[in-house]
Specification:
Elements (H helix, E strand, L loop, with lengths): L4 E5 L4 H12 L5 E4 L21 E4 L2 E4 L1 H12 L10 H31 L6 H21 L13 H15 L8 H11 L2 H4 L7
Parallel strand pairs: 1-2
Antiparallel strand pairs: 1-3, 3-4
Length: about 210
Amino acid sequence: MSVTLDLYGHPWSAPTREVRILCAELAVDYRFIEVKQAEAGDYLPEALNPACKVPMIDADGFILGEAHAILRYLAAGHDTAGVWYPTAPQVRARVDQWLDWQALRLGRLAADLVRQRRFRPGASGDAACAEAERLLTLILPEFDMELKTAPYICGQHPTLADIAIFTSVDYLRLAAFDLGRFAALAAWFETCVARAAWAATAPVLG
């Protein structure tokens, strides 16, 4: 069913990009409403959702925040093939596992690293960057190992998990993190970035 969708977000926001990629893949039309973040941090200027953070959608009056909740909602309504968020319990559980891994582990580290290196160059963040890099070298082998058995993290087709992880890995690229040391991850990233919808949403940071 067609819905009128407003997406509140910021072009530099990786979580916002997750939603934009899925909308493009599923041919979901939406109106993008940019939320200025330079002075207001990560928060919306008005309390339209409980967390007051981007991204947020307004689907004919249904307000929803949190990127992964939005991804699941859009997949439920528009993924008729059932490939982006599979219905098979074990496959879906694997997608959820990697969505959580991105949200709780990779996403925060990637955001911290790109923030220090691209938005605060010259600031006294060397120690924070070094710690982020150290932790990344501990968790990224988990992802790299999984990708040695299939082209995408949960099989032969990309899922919501690939979208979420891709946006964080692209942050790492922008932060000059060496992806080449993880061969399977690097190959997966090149496969993902070759998809038109994923490349078209790339942030322009200058």
